Amino acid sequence: MTGASEEVMMDSGEKRLNELGYKQELRREMTLFKTLAISFSTMTLFTGITPLYGSSLQYAGPASLVWGWVVVTFFTWFVGVAMAEICSSFPTTGSLYFWAAHLAGPVWGPLASWCCAWLEAIGLIAGIGTQAYAGSQVLQSIILLCTGTNKGGGYLAPRWLFLVMYIGLTLIWAVLNTFALEVIAILDVISMWWQVIGGTVIVVLLPLVAKTTQPASYVFTHFETAPEVTGISSGAYAVVLSFLVSQYSLYGYDAAAHLTEETKGADRNGPIAILSSIGIISVFGPPARSCPRRSCTTRSTGGTTTPPAPSCCSSSSGAPSSSAGLSITTSAARVVYALSRDRGVPFSSVWRRIHPKHKVPANAVWLCAAVCALLGLPILRINVVFTAITSIATIGWVGGYAVPIFARMVMREEDFRPGPFYLRRASRPVCLVAFLWICYTCSVFLLPTSYPIKMDTFNYAPVALGVCLGLIMLWWVVDARKWFKGPVRNIDEQNGNGKV
Length: 500
Description:
mainly alpha, Amino acid/polyamine transporter I, 2 strands, globular, disordered N terminus, disordered C terminus, transport, membrane, AA/rel_permease1, transmembrane
């Protein structure tokens, strides 16, 4: 009777986790709303506006910016729905990596999980860097505005101070992720309401206080390129580049999946959090991007002069940027922890350790913070650091989505054990559209964003990614394929049957 009673009381997500061969190690205390808040904050609306609003507006004008969000949102729903179905079936930490291993089968599973895990780890760690950079830009702007603006002799933080702010934010996020996961959840709840309520206030008030405004017809229909600034004369190419701000903002909803081992009823609440975060940001995206165009420019440490987002948008993005950095650090640490738990990272025994009191992968948190800090060092010399980090983050992060989605699309339906959220016959067409969209997204982030191509305008993301992924695949061919078998069960591994 006691065993039956415990089984009845067991959380449905924990029960499914045990069936998959993993014991519950992390603290399962996250509610649906807290998980949703973290997922939404990882996507965060305003941190996409602040660094990329001006350049995207320059490429093709306001109409392309607004309608680009609608197009990107439409295809993002396919990706989100495909991932929600898989999340419902596999509510595990390190979700995408685990999904890829199981969905690809015993033959291709190890390679699929290896590629997925490293793509996602690269994307997430670079994602921390994008938020640290965006947060530093916000701090830089606040200092400039408080000391006289760029036209009034205000203080513009030099490169070394910008780097200090970048590293400082990264360290703060690491400390909070080590000792205060519940605080992060609370901050993310505040951030979510900040963006929803604050975004509404900005959209309503901005037309009332702006010195110059444009009619709605201008915002929704005006197309204008700026070849004298961007060097791009092709209208189609300019439109493709103007979509980048939306593609950069509309990912990160997999954060809900990373927290499924810490979420109550994760087999149901994980998919709900994924789809709800996409739904909320889908509604508030177009109004935020239809802010009236203002004729002002600013120069940043990055070295590029562009029309910025309205100053109130820029200032109000500080809290969301910090919250997004916290959330992405949380996700990145979970991926590194999951991969280390399965011995897929050098010195795995170190990175898989759980903090004895707070029950979080503390060492994995600090590894991610250290690598992110190293990514920021080129700020001292190179002007296009943000473009490169953004491209690396998007390609790695979104590219990681493609592996399990493709595996789900080609696997036999009878081999898939569905969870509460199940697409049935719609699964394959949804996965096909999602996979093609991901391939397109990864491709456009490899394109040059300014012409003529020179050392200070070159998008070096393809080179950085090529070298990094080349070394990882070389490691696989030479050594890792001999011993890496994907996720390892930790319930029965002590009996010598650890492989999935």
